[in-house]
């Protein structure tokens, strides 16, 4: 996310630095956009008919309507009746043009250590290509482990390419990236924060590459919320690495990632290649789309979003999922400053009897977004939404599981920076088995969270209310 001095999330940046950063970015937004960007509305799209079957791709191409219908019927048989299976799937297909893809195996990675182990194992087995796109890569113990692993594979003849975000990695010294380049790795900086390095393009400092994508040999892909930083080195247990009263740097960062093998990997490869092409990266002539076989039974849709009114795909993914939910919405998000349509979708879901629960951070690396998010609590609680704040660890996961069948893991925060200004990516997984894993992880977060009770919340100090109200005024820029 943007409203923190990027790096290790240590909280060392002082309040005055945050104020200056807010003013700087606010002015940058005005200069870059000349006004407020807008989001699409659900009513902009035709309501999908339940009589149509979503398009499904397999390892050998598009499946027949009969087979696709049988797959959807099988999904419907796994859970209570819900529109999330077909109507939502049809709308996102219409918005994104991206199909559902059958035959995948998705592995849930519940924290930083599990994610790093899986990623480094895949890198170690690479034979031809490694494509890596990340918001943050730090010059710390974790960053150097990845740098060493990538350099070893480059020396073995594997073509390694890295895209990092200029703001996200602004604390990483240039020497870190120069070492990679000197070792033969192709390294590109996304949207340099220095306006003199934009190559004549319009300078839009707020436009960031917030994606986390790793594709190895075109056969295995990773995505989620985990950056390359030592703050993720602790396990998901919530144990602290410092004082109990310390800030986010002293706490474990709880995040979620996924590893995917199967036909859906090609969609992640396409997203990376699109970014590489937009940055005018050199062509290598390697094989990026090897034949992919069926690896499992998970149905996956890969949703990539870039700025522009017609490409708010991850935004529409969330709004429509909340709209079509019929039984449960279990959401985890570190930064919560939603627009009115997202807020209304959550409120209306709770009012029609959907079990809406949201896990939010009890401690955050962003004071602004922390208090901005709390400004919505009263309205949500009065509507029947259940809110929880995670103890001990800094929650950084961007996940949801809906109606015990629909899950998403990705990079998209529940704020306007992600919805309006960032390149983002999410994986949507349809299936009760994976949803059950997501529910177990969600329940563990609930056990380590404090529930916010409306009667107690209304008794909070006047100063807190004033601070929340004031910060909310900047909501469009958070």
Structure report:
This protein has 2 domains: 40-104 and 298-477, Endonuclease, Chain A; 107-278, Endonuclease Chain A (Endonuclease, Chain A). The chain is built from 15 helices and 22 strands. Residues 1-20, 27-35 and 239-246 have low confidence and may be disordered. A hairpin with a 3-residue loop joins strand 18 and strand 19 (406-410). The chain is globular. The strands form 3 sheets. It has an 18-stranded mixed sheet that branches. Strands 10-17 form a two-stranded parallel sheet. With 478 residues, the chain is of the alpha/beta class.
Rg, alpha carbons: 21 Å
What portion of the residues fall into strands of 2 or more residues?
15-25%
Main beta-sheet strand count, sense and barrel state: 18 strands, mixed
Q: Roughly how much helix do the residues carry, as a percent range?
A: 25-40%
CATH topology (level 3) name of the largest domain: Endonuclease, Chain A
Return the CATH class of the largest domain: Alpha Beta
DSSP strand tally: 22
- Going by CATH, the architecture of the largest domain would be 2-Layer Sandwich
Query: Total number of helical segments?
Result: 15
Cα distance spanning the termini: 9 Å
Low-pLDDT residue intervals, each spanning 5 or more residues: 1-20, 27-35, 239-246
The CATH superfamily of the largest domain turns out to be Endonuclease Chain A
Domain count, please report it: 2
Strand pairing plus helix content: what structural class?
alpha/beta
Q: Write down the overall geometry.
A: globular
Report the average pLDDT across residues.
Answer: 87
